[in-house]
Amino acid sequence: MKRLVLAIVVALSAIGAQAQECDSLVNVCYEYLAPSKSDGKVFISDGQVYKAFVDAEQSAEFKVTLYGGSLYRIATTAGTKDDYVIFNVYDQERNLLFSNADEDNHPYWDFKIDNTLDCYVEAYLDIDKKVSGCLVVLIGFNK
Question: Does the domain formed by 2-142 have CATH 3.30.530.20?
Answer without folding.
Answer: no
